Amino acid sequence: MPRLDLNLLVALDALLEEGSVTGAAERLNTSPPAMSRTLARLRRTLQDPVLVRAGRGLVPTPRALELRAEVNAFVSHGRTLLAPHGAVDPGDLRATVAIQANDALLTSLAAPLTARVRGQAPGMTLRFVPESHEGTSAMRDGTVDLELGILDHLDPETRTRPLADSELVGVVRDGHPFVADPPDPRRYAAADHIGVSRRGRATGPIDDRLRELGLQRRVPVTVPGYAAALFIVRDTDLVALAPAGLGGRAPQLLGLSTFPIPLDLPPVSIGMAWHPRNDRDPAHRWLRRQIRETVREVAGDQG
């Protein structure tokens, strides 16, 4: 089978519309000699003269007239497919988007984001997936469309956008001594803590800071998710962590209290990541905008 050169169809459409080699060349921003060579290729490919001399002009052959409407429709459709997307009507969107995020973010973002999407784009489905895909090729193979969280493990081609910086705060049950009397580093280290790690790790940046001060905390419980930690805090004297702002809604709903951590900790940077193939997709772009606006609203309400 001969190789298909779609440029020939574009040239044929221009030649049939203009009825002139010079006019077709101007339309396609090329030279008349180049267009003459393209016409010669078309004649060989179609085994038809395509355009023939009639006085000082050119007229299409019966074969060219037979092809004209179909070629024009094909080229017009191709231009439509490749044209930049204009304004998107959310009500027309039909897509399922897989979003990976930890439950600390989901406790604050999932409900308002879902309400926003359902109100504007009822045909869109949000599928929240666990962090078990983190560090895998899920973004490349399409298992995950968007990732929200701390972006420190991405493939080099991945597109990112910062969403918010959030301070860490301590979370305790209502009535805990740390509420009325916020601790210094020594009292903070002396408390029993809850570790949150899907890999079961009991230490992190806080332990590094405490070690610099010659202190060490005890972590008798480690759970894989933030929500489980909050429920344990509610019924014990253990201490947990939460991102202020983006993670503040869940502790409030559970009647928990927060206190400032007495350590010099950098803010947690929350971002959004996606694969380049989704960069210009209308549904994907619209949803990324909704996520940014939802984060801004949630962080502002809790700030």
From TrEMBL:
Alphabetically ordered keywords of this record: DNA-binding, Transcription, Transcription regulation
Pfam (any one): LysR_substrate
CDD domains in UniProt: PBP2_DntR_like_1
Alphabetized GO MF terms: DNA binding; DNA-binding transcription factor activity
InterPro entries, A to Z: LysR-type_TF (IPR050389), LysR_HTH_N (IPR000847), LysR_subst-bd (IPR005119), WH-like_DNA-bd_sf (IPR036388), WH_DNA-bd_sf (IPR036390)
HTH lysR-type domain location: 4-61
PANTHER family: HTH-TYPE TRANSCRIPTIONAL REGULATOR LEUO-RELATED, TRANSCRIPTIONAL REGULATORY PROTEIN
Family indicated by similarity: Belongs to the LysR transcriptional regulatory family.
Name of the protein this chain belongs to: LysR family transcriptional regulator
Organism: Streptosporangium nondiastaticum
